[in-house]
Design a protein that fits this description.
Elements lengths: L1 H16 L3 H25 L14 H17 L6 H14 L10 H22 L13 H20 L7 E6 L5 E24 L16 E16 L4 H26 L4 H27 L11 E2 L2 E2 L4 H4 L7 E5 L2 E2 L3 H9 L4 E7 L5 E7 L10 E2 L4 H10 L1
Antiparallel strand pairs: 1-2, 2-3, 4-6, 5-10, 6-7, 6-8, 8-9
Helix pairs in contact: 3-6, 4-5, 5-6, 5-8, 6-7, 6-8, 7-8
Pfam family, one: PDZ_6
Organism: Sediminibacillus dalangtanensis
Keywords: Membrane, Transmembrane, Transmembrane helix
Amino acid sequence: MALDAWLIELAMGVGKLFLNPLLYWSVILLLLASTRRIKQERSQFGLKVFDVFSEAKNTWSVSLIGGILLSAAALGGGIVFSYPVLLVLSAMMILLSVTGRFTLLSAAYTFGFSYFILLIAPPLIAEYTDLAWTTDLESLNFTGLALLLAAFLLIEALLFLRITSRATYPELVKGNRGKWVGRHRLKKMAVIPFFALVPTGMIEPFADWWPVLHIQGESFGLILLPLMTGFEQVVKGVKPVHAAKRIGRSVLFLAFLTFGLAIGSYFLPLLSLVAFGVALIGREWISFRFREKDKQEQPFFHPSEKGLLILGIIPGTPADQLGMLVGERIERANGQQISNEQEFYTALQRNSAFCKLEVRDERGEIRFLQRAMYQGDPHELGIIFAKEEYRLRNQEKSG
């Protein structure tokens, strides 16, 4: 009978997923973000660089594995989340992402602001209204929420650390000297499927210690939540992959620190306040520190006479198939030294059936790349440089 109850609650929990507005909002949010990005790519480069929904590409393995492990740990540990907690958390995720950007989707913000609302709201609601929302803060299970916060920060750190040179988004911006330079945007969003244990249902406690939070009635149910997490960071002074690794390591340290405080809050409840405060302030400090340091750096993607710096690679093009990477410098094309785009394409036209390039990688070593060119291949190979020519031509046409 106990197994039947678990299976029934599991099925009901999955069914409730499709009633959750977070599921549909996550799809809409991804679509809005992709549409805005593609519009900017067409404006700056004359074409679409990345496909729709690429902001969620390569996140599914982390999302699914993370969701399974989190759900198993929460259910096995008997961590119960009351409906007010889940309602406020879901509403906060929608509210902080309503602009279509992922800047505030970090768990430090979504969980942090939810915590402070849950800390303040119940007494106020009880005092000024007749709503039956308990003022017993222990029933809100701040320790469980703090543990979930630490786990989501860990997932965010992994998403940063998994970013490759082909998974960041190139942009053009005016530099301090008025010339167009390149920059990249680190941007990802993931949906974590999380089974939460909630009050009321068919599941009965199977041990004295389960659940951790005892609720009158001692029966529980399951609900599947599509919880969102993400980030968005502009990088101009260093290679985007290096920036992602640097930020990822900082967020990883913050996740472990928050996790330690969350465990401590089981014995000393006040530490839950410290955990949320540290996560919120720490995540904002990581972004602020990187942003300020990046401003002091010279633009990494800027015109140079020593060759052509690759700002972006369009997926599926000859440049992508050749294994060219963002941040590498093309110094020779078909044996000819190059210093600007005109020389580059002139050198390519010297042998329209074959392409041979000398590219200097991030270690300063020369790589030799070659490929036969076929009819239908884009003549520009699929490489994006930091230039203003297309923007100027587009402005002239619109004018």
